[in-house]
Structure formats: structure tokens, C-alpha cells
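Sample entry (348 residues):
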Amino acid sequence: MELKARVDSFEMLGRQIRSLTDPGNPIRDTGLISAVRQATVENPWFTEENILTSLRNISLALTREKIQKWLEPYFQRLSDKQAHSNKTIAVIMAGNIPAVGFHDFLCVLISGHRLLGRLSSQDSILIPFLAELLCKINSKWKENIRFTRNQIEHFDALIATGNDNSSRYFDYYFRNYPNIIRKNRNSIAILTGHEKPKELEGIADDCLLYFGLGCRSVSKIFVPPDYDFSAIGKAMEKYTHYLNHPKYHNNYIYNKSIYQVGQIPFQDHGFLLFKEDPELVSRIACIHYEYVQDIRKLVTKIKEDRSKIQCVVALPSTTYKSIAPGKAQQPELWDYADDVDTMEFLMF
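Predicted structure, serialized as C-alpha cells:
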């Protein structure tokens, strides 16, 4: 399939997803209804609201303008390899947030390779649903897409997303293959105290969308001395409905009890805990915070911990690279996980 046809297919897929998930219209597509229902049963953390949000964010990235901008650095090589022999790229997908494996799915296929996807047991419905939509747009995709839950074999290169424990296994087992192997990462936010209400609402999304389970989810905020938490606490209140979710509610109660029994200081906002803690990783229903006395020391610390940090959310700064509040869960196509250029990896 020529590059233009591949681009056309994904641009049309974006249009179709936008139409199916339009927040102004009720879900009418039986295929989407079925996929959403199955996904929520398979993984209780996948609510209908979060699934539709994830699919909408995917669709916002799949415009012709954005796809062309993304592919521009690779365009000549992609065009020169119109007739190259497709390689089979195995992709071991995660299942922490809905359809999290889509970007790898996109990269492999639009670069002209065959996809062998090993689905997560926590997200085995949504990516195949999107693949089915793609194949309806152009039936030739059926030749290049295969999913499995079994052991992967007969492939040329590997992309794997997991945690720190599984990455050690992947590193050893797939050491003889070209590979990208991703580990645990978390995201942080740097607050100045001058954020406007809309920006604080964006940071609330960055922290709590998908229950804070993504690698792009902000698990820790850095604040100035004597920071007033009332404004950020109020912004977080848009997610008080999470208390109606049994698994989130249980985590909130459990973590609160642990801190109380251990006499560990924390702030309780009724559905979310704030805890002063040097660790980047926080528990579900809890956000860590740390006071910043010297921004230069913080920048040095971020550089030292770069392998553990996916995103830095903050107002624009000349001191450090950041993304705008509210954009952590809306990555562009060129925002590669772990800062590893997946498309460049696939240029062989």
C-alpha cells in the first residue's frame, strides 16, 4: 500500500472516530456500544467516559495537517521505500488506560510494516475495534494486522511497553532483536501560584483523567513555599464523582486509613489526598507535593530523574521544557513515549 493511501486511511479513521464519539450526540453505533461495554467489563478502570475521552483525543491527532507535519522528517525515506519488503513488528501493548497502544499501532502501520500486536488482558477490545474500522476504510489493511494473546514469534523487531519488572524480562528475552522497551514513568507539574482557574482545571485533568493511571498522568506537583492549596483543590473537584467508582473509592479510603494509622500528615479534599513526599510515584487517589525553594535545583533534579519522568506540566518557562496545563493527556503524534522516536526506529 502506497504512503498516500496509508495517510488517507488514518485521516479517514480520525474523522470516523470524531463522528462516533461526538459529545453532542448519543452513541448510536452498535459496534462502538459493544466495544465500550466489553471494555468496561474487562477492565473496571475503563469507564465509558474515559474510553470516549481517549478515543476523542486519538481522533484530534488524526487530522491530515497533523499527520503530514508528523511525517515530514521521514517523508522522503517513506516514499523511497514504497516497495520495500514489509517487516513484522511485534508490539506488546499495555493496558493501563484505554487504547494506550494506539500510537505504536499507528507508527508501525503508517511506516509500511506489518503489525503483530500482543494485546494486554486489560485492554483487548479497543485496539481491535479501531483496527476493524481501519480495515473497513481499506480492506488491504487486513493483510498487515494480526493480534494475539499468546507468545509472540516470527517477527523482525519489537516495541514493548511494561513496568520496571517486565522490562528486565523483555531486555533479556528480546536482546537479539532491534527493540524499544519502555519502563515505568510518571509525570510532574510545576506550579507558580499564578495559574488561572482554567489552567488549574487543566492540571486537574492532567492529574486525574483516567484515574491517574497513565504514564502521562501527573502524580506529583512542585509548589512554592507557603503555597495555598485551596485553588488547586477546588479545581480538582470536577472529579468528585470518582467516589462513585468502587475501585477508586476503596483506594481513597484505604490510603487515608494507612496515613491516619501511621500518623502521616496529609491533606484531605474529600475524595483526593495531598501528601508531602519526595517520591515521584503516588498512590491512587493521592497526589504527592514538594515545596520548591530554588527553581534551579529543581531543574537539576528533573534532569537527573529524566528517565523516570514522562511529562513536565507548567506555564511557559525559559528555564525548563514543559507542556501546557491540560495537555498531558492530549499528546501530539510527535510526542513520543520516553522521548524515543518510534518512527525513526522503524526506518529500516
